[in-house]
Amino acid sequence: MKHDLAHMTIATARELLDRGDVSAVELADAYCARIAEKNPTLNAYLEVYDDVREQAKAADTMLAAGTRHALTGIPISIKDNILIQGKIASAASQMLATYRASYDATVIDRLKKQGAVFLGRTNMDEFAMGGSTENSAFGPTKNPHDLSRVPGGSSGGAAASVAADLAVAALGSDTGGSIRQPASFCGVVGLKPTHGAVSRYGLMAMASSLDQIGPLAKTVADTEILFNAIAGRDSKDATSIDRPRPPTHDKKLVVGVPRDFLEKGVDPDVLENFENSLAALKQSGVEIRDINLPNLKYSLAVYYVIMPAEVSSNLARFDGVRYGAHVDAPTMLEEYLATRRAGFGAESRRRIMLGTYVLSTGYYDAYYGKATMVRELLKDDFNTVFATGVDCILTPTSPTPAFTIGEKSTDPLAMYLADIFTVSANLVALPAISVPSGFANRAGARVPLGIQFTAPYAREDLLFTIGKLFEKANRA
Ligand code: GLN
Predict the structure, then answer these.
(1) CA 177 – ligand 1 centroid, Å
(2) Is the CB of 193 under 6 A from ligand 1?
(3) 129 touches ligand 1 (CB under 6 Å)
(4) Is the minimum distance from the CB of 177 to ligand 1 under 6 angstroms?
(5) Can 161 be counted among the known catalytic residues?
(6) Does the annotation count 79 as an active-site position?
């Protein structure tokens, strides 16, 4: 029997592969054919790997031998800042346009052992800095729901690859919303794990205390499968943690809503969709409670101090000597300057300058020091709320649906404001998930919306439980 090899979830593809109804090679071929057809328009992939078929053949050999992991033979896309040995990883930057990784990231190593098939590397904002994928040195990705709009960012290519059926699922990275916001703009699910739940070894560092690798997929169940495959302590990342066994949860789920925080700057139809989402949750037996996170209003300011500070130090390694691009000049200092001027785009330079400023003598205490103190207050806010029996905190994922290409790219502050709901989870190291919640109409187009659940430390299990519940409630 011929199967329609589109609109596939990990779960459905798993069934077909395990029954032998399709081979990993057939599945990979179907995805490659769709990529060849649609990617010239979407620009979700920067490169499709030349060994996809070999990878798929190896997966078929595993399947034939009776080895069946959750991801064996499943075609997925990889964000361009995650290292695969021997393959280019450019972080969508001219700086690394031809850089080839010399080792596998831990997440890649774990997926290779399962026999997952990597289709290619996806477009992103340069070094993961941005919320629209317009900061890529290789052109923006387009939103599959409306080609005049951005897919979100920085994992815009990843989200578009899943939404347009150019991958079954994807790996992205999230420093201040870069998995969740593009997931919501493209109508897919995106999970930012607890800081440390997934090893960062082999992820190009943007802001290390905030960065996490995580899955984007069509369903909450699929994000759970992919998360389980990559999570867990790794001796190569000292900040990684073991997965605690979740306590059994048999009481009524309680969702907290920070009402005061939702009043300003959110599009009216986004708020309306949010209210409908709350009603759907209530219908399925979830208790909704108003909560107060008094320092949440500072989270964006704190993020845009701490993040560039860490960026300025992490990106110092791109000196034209150790990695990637190199521009010749008479002296070493001039070589550094010329290389960095040629290699980095405008947004990267802006953040390196901001970060250098907030860390400099005389300003350190006023900015960086202050921001780290407020970050602690924010952690206390979340802990206090969770201590009252709240299981998850709910907000929209983004104050607006996908905006048009060019709409915010000349106004960095407007772009930063769009991160208002996502940055706090990174600052307080908590897991958060964006789940599709419906659509809004914009200029005749139907564009996706998403809502975001945040859970206590290492409680991804709660996000999966409530996420699945919401998917079901919202469908009804
Ligand atoms: N949009 C945010 C920023 O520009 C988030 C980036 C990210 O999570 N990598 O910093």
Answers:
(1) 6
(2) no
(3) yes
(4) yes
(5) no
(6) yes
Confidence of residue 3 (pLDDT cuts 50, 70, 90): low
Nearest to 219 by CA among 400, 457, 470: 470
399 Cα–ligand 1 center, Å: 15
Both tokens assigned to 427: 């600052």
User: What is the domain count for the chain?
Assistant: 1
Is 402 within a domain? no
Look at residue 2 in the predicted model and tell me its pLDDT.
57
Residue 183 forms part of a structural domain: yes
Percent of the chain having pLDDT more than 70? 99
Atom of ligand 1 nearest to the CA of 347: 4
* Torsional sign, CA 47, 93, 42, 435: positive
- Domain extent, residue 61, equals 5-230
Is residue 21 situated within a structural domain?
A: yes
CATH number, residue 9: 3.90.1300.10
Kindly state the average pLDDT of the residues 272-282. Answer: 97
Q: What would the pLDDT profile of 145-183 be if each residue is shown by its tens digit?
A: 999 999 999 999 999 999 999 999 999 999 999 999 999
